[in-house]
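Hi all, posting the design record for the shared folder.

TITLE: backbone redesign
STEP: 1 of 1
STRUCTURE INPUT:
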């Protein structure tokens, strides 16, 4: 538990020190003023947000719905981020598992060789209060992959089911099935949404949540149920379940989806090669 000491600044004059800087001096100038309070506020707001390239796991054992599988294992607390996907791409290009073909990252080996994994040029949507919302944020410099500054902790978008599966498999993980996903999302069976019994724009990023970039940093709306985040809104999540033919099921609703698309029982589907500005994924093991 972090302890913060906050000193009041009166009449515009900052408190200063003589020999030892006060505990609340966060700028290192041996005084406590509004600059220190700004740093404190930033630290407070970002507590609980993961380091960009770290996977955080939550252990869960849920029996699931009758006649469907439950979930017993570990699920990622957050949707997979741009930084995490970028880290994978840099490792996979070095190991020869992927290639860059113009604006697409493609599989170079394994069962999905030749398939599009990621669209480097994926454009965002200017609507619903966003400009270029959900755009691809990972770039190829010609020698390595990088992430647009400020978007490291946003969920990766413009990733196909093939690209999500390749990421998971590279580390020995997997995508959840749609029923495993629902077992976690509905918590003890009482949740109507991944954020509880009700939903509003203060607790989930979906339609009418006005954010300039469409997506928001993972975990920005808090944890729910078993201690997971963004299972309602932000991005729709690929699962390992078939809808029909090769089409795969998506769960959770995206940043501009309506509230009914964010229910724990709602689903969408997509061609496994499809890449959109509101599709992402989380992993389990």
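Okay, here is what came back for every position:
SEQUENCE:
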């Amino acid at each position: 538990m972090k302890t913060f000491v906050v000193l009041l600044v009166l009449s515009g004059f900052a408190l200063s020190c003589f020999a030892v800087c006060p505990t609340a001096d966060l700028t290192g100038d041996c005084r406590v003023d509004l600059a220190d309070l700004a740093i404190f506020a930033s630290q407070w707001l970002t507590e609980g947000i993961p380091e960009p390239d770290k996977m955080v796991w939550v252990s869960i054992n849920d029996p699931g719905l009758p006649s469907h599988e439950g979930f017993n294992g570990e699920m990622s607390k957050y949707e997979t981020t741009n930084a995490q996907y970028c880290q994978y791409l840099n490792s996979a290009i070095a190991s020869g598992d992927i290639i860059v073909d113009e604006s697409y990252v493609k599989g170079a080996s394994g069962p999905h060789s030749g398939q599009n994994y990621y669209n480097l040029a994926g454009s965002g949507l200017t609507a619903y209060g966003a400009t270029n919302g959900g755009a691809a944020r990972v770039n190829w410099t010609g020698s390595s992959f990088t992430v647009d500054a400020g978007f490291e902790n946003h969920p990766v978008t413009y990733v196909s089911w093939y690209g999500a599966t390749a990421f998971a498999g590279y580390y020995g993980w997997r995508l959840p099935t749609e029923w495993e996903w629902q077992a976690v999302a509905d918590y003890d069976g009482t949740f109507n949404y991944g954020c509880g019994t009700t939903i509003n724009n203060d607790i989930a990023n979906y339609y009418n949540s006005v954010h300039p970039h469409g997506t928001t940093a993972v975990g920005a709306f808090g944890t729910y149920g078993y201690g997971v985040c963004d299972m309602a809104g932000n991005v729709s999540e690929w699962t390992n379940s078939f809808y029909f033919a090769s089409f795969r099921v998506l769960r959770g609703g995206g940043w501009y989806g309506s509230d009914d698309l964010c229910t724990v029982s709602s689903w969408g589907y997509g061609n496994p090669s499809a890449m959109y500005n509101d599709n992402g994924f989380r992993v389990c093991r």
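COMMENT: The two ends are 29 Å apart (CA to CA).
Let me know if anyone wants the other runs.
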